[in-house]
Amino acid sequence: MTDCLQWETETLLQLSQVSCITSVFFGGGTPSLARPSTIATILETVSRQVNLPDEAEVTLEVNPTPVGMSKLEDYCSAGVNRFSIGVQTLQDDDLKILGRDHSSHQALKTIEEAQRLCPGRVSVDVMFGRPRQSVESWENELSELLRACDDHVSLYQLTLERGTQLFKQVQQGEVTMPADDVTAEMYRCARRTLHQRGFLQYEVSNFARNNAVGHHNMSYWKGRQYIGVGPGAHGRFVPLGEGGVVREARTQTLEPDVWIREVQQRGHGTRRRIQLGHLELLEEVLVMGMRMTEGINHKHWELFSPQLCLHEVFGTSTDVRELLQNGQLILDDRGLRCSWDGLALLDSILPALLVELETKILQKPQRDQSANGQTQKTSNS
What we know:
alpha/beta; seven-stranded mixed beta sheet; three-stranded antiparallel beta sheet; 17 helices; globular
């Protein structure tokens, strides 16, 4: 696995021809099961191929088990300088329901140790909308967590995954989930509580104080290029090694044993490559950019859409005008963004924006769009 991760990293970096990597994120699955030497090897491979500055953000997702905690110091020695800890909940009964193999006590100890090693650079994942959870119990739990956590919090609503034990229990009526209006109130309550504790919301699910934003994820939301390495990884970059100018969405083979075989045969395990046309690229820029509280500024939009500005695309639509008038959406000199209330309703706002974008793009013939906005930021990933 380590050899293949190394090999695929080399292949995709060469293919992208980027000169500098600004962040690395070890995530998906449970990367803290990996040996620190594996993490060190991958980072050394990146450094050999391209410039990986000392100040580059290198994040590792950690399961807060005793085994995960015992390796934190070695991960730092390997080059990790930020931890994302999957606490999920401080209720031990709920951890069992969620199938997690750590306790609340272990989670708090892991946060403490991670903060000792990387002060100000520890993120905590917490989940709401859990079975039998009430708004009051969630508020108390979040307050307790905030007494222990560092300067970054990621909030996620529990989604039921088909095939899990919890999904089966809900289907059979053994477990009940909170109603939609209750989970909506939990989200509102969390935003208020975090704001009161000095956390600024900079994205739908992410909150930071002391400017401790996650730079790697900001790259996704700002439509920058990124390379996905490993089984099931996703990437978005212009494969310049093949003479291309069009950004591709690339997905690596999901099954680890098949992925290993493919990497051994051809240096990478890319299962699917989709060239992103002008409309698809703008759709991604819109959907990702609107997740941020700052939204999409005019200059950023112009990088990808030099011929149609934000006002031309969204300023004349009846549906969008309604969102602007009721205060959920803001379109001004700064750009396009959701209001505080609108951000909580983003999923219901996006369809109207996407319809308007498609209508305007298909109405206006685009010249040379394969080159415009597609090769931006090729020197960084």
